[in-house]
Amino acid sequence: MDAEFTAEQDGIRRALRDLLTKRCGPGEVKAAVRTDAGYDEGLWERLAGAMGLPGLALPTEYGGVGCSMTELALACEETGRALLPSPLLATALLAAPVVAALGGDHQRNGILPRLASGELTAALALPGAPGAALGLVPGGCEAGGGRAGGVQARREGDGWLLYGQVDQVLDGHRAGLLVVAAHTGGYTRGRTLLFLVDGAAEGLSRVRSATLDETRAQARVELREVPAVLLGHDGADVAEALRRTGDAAAAALAAEAVGAADRALANTVAYVRVREQFGRPVGSFQAVKHRLADLYVRVQAARSAAYYAAWAAGEEPEELRTAGPLALAQALEASRAAAGEGIQLHGGVGFTWEHDAHLYFKRAAADELLFGPVHQLRATAAERAGVFRRGERGERGERAEGSERGELGERGERTEMEAIG
């Protein structure tokens, strides 16, 4: 792995940071999330049109820029620093890779160029928590179960009709295209397939949800006999496509969380330099220096893990199976720690709900709810890496339990003999 970035990669980072510094400060973020779209549409058009952000990692044959996951991760790090509310995650990291992996030639040619240009936004509607549906934590994609548990699909002539409900659909309230996971085939031949649903389809109802983190818009999507088109073919390996999408998204999400953690730490350092207590800056106290130094180390370690995962996405896909969840776990921890310490070290003003520090705290907490928890991300990576062989943990537990029972029995016998004696 070459840890040096190219001039082009540094240019992408610099150009994006300059633009977001001017157009996406905390005040602009708070204003944007309260609009109907949930983001600044003018800024998104500029990011998509002038910078090609949604098509950064898409092949040039589909209208993309043709860069690797490394460039997209660097871009996500900058969007994370600014907490940019946008359809980037839903469109470029979740929906587009699935369409590219499973779609037929006519579907890829018809959809991907529009996603790359920003003309069309898309959302991936997966029943269940996003982290579980993408295979990052246990649970899987719960596509079946009717209205409360997912979506059912049935054939209608040459097409399909979908019925059900999906919660926690990222950018689902505004996306022009929905990629919906649905269960079909009944009990005997039951399977999960992905379907394309037009955002203006009859019978489709979408309601924006109230969320802890307003910068990640979510929606509840209800489908009542909605016409849909099958993505790809009936025998597509949907589970594998979702897992690969989840692993790559984990690398980009890790970079995004690192950007948020880095900005939260920088804001805190700037504040403790000017806030005074007992006639001197708070940042001059040794205890505060130690806390900030520990945060710096955690953020840098998370950055290294995120960069490695992004590199592995393009160079060593099999390594990404473990590197993605691990990087995301470390980045989420760093983001949560930096945001929490930021509120603490901002003192009384930091505890007010309106303070900018809470934007980073809510992002860190909400991301772990969506894609974690952290300990399960690490457990997924350990299982994939073969840290525990099949049944090994159970055998160890049984041996330990048997040993403990034997030890307790011997101890009881000795106690009884001593009492008799």
TrEMBL record:
Chain segments annotated as transmembrane: none
Family assignment from sequence similarity: Belongs to the acyl-CoA dehydrogenase family.
Lineage of source species: Bacteria, Bacillati, Actinomycetota, Actinomycetes, Kitasatosporales
Oxidoreductase in keyword set: yes
Residue intervals of the Acyl-CoA dehydrogenase/oxidase N-terminal domain: 6-119
Protein name per UniProt: Acyl-CoA dehydrogenase
Pfam family membership, one: Acyl-CoA_dh_1
Acyl-CoA dehydrogenase/oxidase C-terminal domain boundaries: 250-384
Keyword annotations from UniProtKB, A to Z: FAD, Flavoprotein, Oxidoreductase
